[in-house]
Amino acid sequence: MLQLKNVDVCYGSFKALNNISLSVDTGELVVLLGANGAGKSTLFNTISGLNKPVAGSIEFEGKRIGGLKPSAVVSSGIVQCAEGRKLFPQMTVMQNLMMGAYVHRRDKAGNKKYLDEVLELYPILKEKEHQPAGSLSGGQQQMVAIGRALMSRPRLLMLDEPSLGLAPLVVRQMFETIQKINSLGTTVLLAEQNAFAALKIATRAYVMENGQLVMEGDRETMLGNEQVRKAYIGA
Ligand code: ATP
């Protein structure tokens, strides 16, 4: 579905991504592990068109998307839910959700169907639909952010650190819904520091260090790998 080959990205003279080759198959839930500053957000921003690669190729469903504008990447079926949620805090929950439907604004019936699915996934958002998004708890704001991304109808959903700053119980529920979104048919690429919880729901995972992918394996391999356990799980 998604294939990156030998991708390099630079900030000035600093090479933030170095020779990245990564693939995501349809239906997978692929986790990207890595410490702060490893380059996970840079990689996501590159796939979503915010950063331009200086080398390498990015293909999605057989079409080259490297270098496309972010809006064109969204239209092609890849939607990113960025770190830090980035909601419009003064706007209501419903207005925030509907921002995600902008690319499909002419398809009112379709948007209603997707909205119903989002509200079924996160029933609390129905109760809070008229409240300003900024008045919600951190976990509920994360639901709005993911819901808004789903309203753009991704075939590949990229989630950057969705558990950041959330309480442990809320984190658990967050991972359960991410797994549900995946099982309902959306392919997921998930960057996480919360390695154990992320690996438990993963099909496969990559480890990123200093702008390079240094390891790749399926869930069992990664959970059983001593290096991964020491560096990212703390066991
Ligand atoms: P975090 O989880 O903290 O966001 P990350 O793994 O997502 O970490 P990136 O944010 O992608 O890492 O950063 C990778 C490297 O690129 C870091 O060394 C960072 O300081 C640097 N970097 C990120 N954005 C820029 C920028 N706009 N200009 C210059 N350097 C940057």
Automatic annotation (TrEMBL):
Signal peptide: none annotated. Pfam families: ABC_tran (PF00005). Residues 2-235 form the ABC transporter domain. InterPro entries: AAA+_ATPase, ABC_transporter-like_ATP-bd, ABC_transporter-like_CS, BCAA_Transport_ATP-bd_LivF, P-loop_NTPase. Keywords: Amino-acid transport, ATP-binding, Nucleotide-binding, Transport. GO terms for biological process: L-amino acid transport. It comes from the Bacteria. One of its GO terms (molecular function) is branched-chain amino acid transmembrane transporter activity. The keyword Repeat does not apply. Belongs to the ABC transporter superfamily. This is ABC transporter ATP-binding protein. It comes from Marinobacter nanhaiticus D15-8W.
